[in-house]
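In response to reviewer comment 3 from the previous cycle, which asked for concrete evidence that the modeling workflow produces usable outputs, we include below a single protein chain processed end to end. The sequence was submitted unchanged, and the resulting structure tokens are shown without manual editing.
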Amino acid sequence: MSSPQPSPPLQLPITGMSCASCVRRVEKALLQVPGVTAAEVNLATERATVQMGRPELPRLIESVGKAGFGVALAQTTLQVEGMTCASCVGRVEKALLKVPGVLSAAVNLATEQASVQALPDVPAAALRKAVEAAGYTARDATQPTPVARRAAPAWAAPALGALLTLPLVAPMLLALFGLHWMPAGWVQLALATPVQFGLGWRFYRAGWKALRAGAGNMDLLVALGTSAAYGLSLWLWLQPDGPAAPHLYFEASAAVITLVLLGKWLEDRAKRQTTDAIRALNALRPTTARVLRDGAELELPIDAVRVGDLVLVRPGERVPVDGEVSAGRSHVDESLITGESLPVAKAVGARVTGGAINAEGALTVRTLAVGTETTLARIVRMVESAQAAKAPIQRIVDRVSAVFVPAVLVIALLTFVGWVLADGAWQQALVNAVSVLVIACPCALGLATPTAIMAGTGVAARAGILIKDAEALERAHAVDTVVFDKTGTLTEGRPTLVAVRPADAAVGRDELLRLAAALQQHSEHPLAKAVLQAARQAQLAPAPVLDARALPGRGMQGEVQGRLLGLGSGRWLAELGLDAGALAAEAKTLEAAGRSVSWLVRLAAPAAATAEGPTRPGDGPAAVLGLLAFGDAIKPAARDAVARLHALGVSTVLLSGDNRGSAEAVAHELGIADCRAEVLPGDKAAAVSGLRAEGRVLAMVGDGINDAPALAAADVGIAMATGTDVAMQTAGITLMRGDPRLVADALDVSRRTVLTIRRGLFWAFAYNLVGIPLAAAGLLNPVIAGAAMALSSVSVVANALTLRRWRAAGQSAAPPDPPSARPAANAVDEAQASAD
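The workflow returned the following structure tokens.
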């Protein structure tokens, strides 16, 4: 007996290598994987050649990752045609996973797409060939859909089937009114034959492909069931007393095929409605732009626009690119992008988003992003990705679907044998077996989850809620605690300087502000901007700063005019062992009023400055020079956002790096009982993990760079799109505008979507669990069974479409500031290099 041929070597493109040491580490990591017999890494080509008995790509990638490197992967999306049920999904996925170099494959029945993650050198042709070997056809999803010439409309097949089938089922309908009429046997044969082998040929073709691939699907069940009914009727009619035989079943075979075709047509129409959100977003993409180049106005295709181009936008036109207004003033409708219902005022310096509608004024926009890098393109990609992804609950359905068709075939055979053994009436036994075959519906099982996810993510996107994947959607429904970052999330994130207090007369107010501005002049931190704005208003020019650097969670320090100065938090002041003196009482008063307090201190005097003693006011030993207090207004919608979460039964936590007094002031104002203040940026993730350890299902809401680890540590990360790209990339859900009420809306749409999925799966399972036994017991006519099967898929998709009626409460405009609104605290002890 010959030994099995070894698998061909696997080529892995390795990322992150820089030297020979890296090569050895990667080779060592690969050789530690069980089954690997040889591993060679080439630094020049950045590729690893691996020989193992049975290639296990996930384990190889995991081992390389643990060594500190990566494996480059490519994402391919295929449009798969010919799938009809959940069994087809499983077969296509298995076929794709058998292709060497494929890491994962997820097939969505609703979109009829397969998302494949594989090594870059896996050709798309190999993937298409694998799909075709499984009995289906595949093409690149990015290619336009081929248009069939003179193709009949989709409704033609069910309409023709109904026309031919109506005379066959008419006797059943007339019998309800006491009328007895039956067409002749040859008439029934003439009407049923074109339905069976013309309109129903697609079921034979797809069923044969499935059978040839060693699997089963809905088409096979329909083909077997209707063929049995048709064959029985033909056999009875050909008997000597055939033409006078009262019990022919041509109407059963024709009606089942017609009803299945009708159900598929209705199902396809309903599925298209679940993708309305994507179509609406794609419709926002302008195809041309009016560009100013060399003083001339040119109308160019959108693909020809470059970053930096000046684009003219007339009243009533769509903004073609992401950019910044360089001239003009207008209002812009961004409702289909951010969900904001009211037009937003735009002036010079304001950002505009491609796809938004310009209102009354002409704008000149400097292009910042085009093509696939625009906000609209990223939104479309994120929504498409979420709709194509497979929810965890779907994996249970996939396992059931894998054995569904074989189980139904066994039940049908047992039904036939059981009835024959019971009373010997093989005709009735065959009819009951046919009922079992045609009532079983794996389609409903396969459609319940993806259609609900498509509808849910679609309506969420219209409300300004972008859900990255189906897993985030499913996890969010179980959230019982929401942790809020403060600055920029619950507050406006635009602090203003409200108080400047020198420690003594040696350093005056203006000098204190000038020194603080000198330290902050190169910082992008919101507090720095507030200090510089106040200095400009006071016409104070900041002095040059040397060796300025941020101290994470504490503040900033640098050398100004020979003095080493620092501006930071009360925690840092305590760590330095400095006494605030007479300012301590005032600082407590300001913090109690919701202000954030920063301290300007002299850390030490350089040697050159102290050789002959202090020469300028403030020189000398380390000391407090004064304090600066900041105010940041609470967002008008923040109180309502917290109240809505409490109404949903979700508890709230405020997690901030700000001083306890100002953080608690915001928490008290908003009704948040659990406030955790003075948390360093690096400790936020640990705080979130601690809350999860208490058994809570946690959502973290933030917008800053230093929120990214906490967003990743939570069960669900929710990022404000008004914040940093890092936060948005880490989060599972992104809110397209800074309205905190969208947090409750995101949890609500998640709950409703999961409820819709469960309701659809319940009816899909219940329908089969009830219908199949009734059919096996002889209590269902094949026609009724076929109608029930066709309507089951339609009802599941219609159930998903109920999500389209969902509306986000946060879609309404934010209320105006109440008269009592007062500034709230801003975090002061965050690193000056990042927002709270």
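The first strand starts at residue 10 and ends at 15. We consider this sufficient to address the reviewer's concern, and the full set will be provided in the supplementary archive.
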